[in-house]
Design goal:
Elements lengths: L8 H18 L3 E6 L1 H4 L2 H16 L3 E6 L2 H10 L5 E3 L2 E3 L2 H19 L1
Parallel strand pairs: 1-2
Antiparallel strand pairs: 3-4
Helix pairs in contact: 4-5
């Protein structure tokens, strides 16, 4: 487990010494962090991500979270009986797919994060 609470006092001190230059460098800065859709379907990863965001905020870093949602969009399209079209590994977003993406990202994914 990578939780700081489980580390020995010596290990905690080493981690803090290692991170202090980054905290000092980025304090007051806006940092954009992407939370991928695949990470959101794993409750443990999502919880750790939230803890990291809280930590950044508590040391004066101003995180802005940008989230994905491809697995969630794909699942909704499956439920609606629609097939996603991909070209060169990228989803082709027609008007119907865009409506579904908005519905999923704004109505579900964003609310789960916030």
């Amino acid at each position: 487990d990578q939780n700081l609470d489980t580390f020995s006092p010596e290990r905690r001190a080493a981690v803090l010494v290692e991170t202090l230059p980054y905290i000092q460098r980025f304090r007051g800065s806006v940092i954009v962090v992407k939370l991928g859709g695949n990470a959101m379907v794993d409750d443990d990863l999502a919880a750790r991500f939230a803890e990291d965001i809280v930590l950044m905020h508590s040391v004066g870093i101003r995180p802005v979270v940008v989230h994905g949602g491809a697995p969630q969009i794909g699942a909704m399209m499956d439920r609606l009986g629609l097939e996603a079209e991909f070209r060169d590994g990228l989803r082709v977003t027609d008007a119907d797919t865009l409506d579904i993406a908005r519905m999923v990202l704004v109505g579900k994914v964003n609310r789960e994060i916030v």
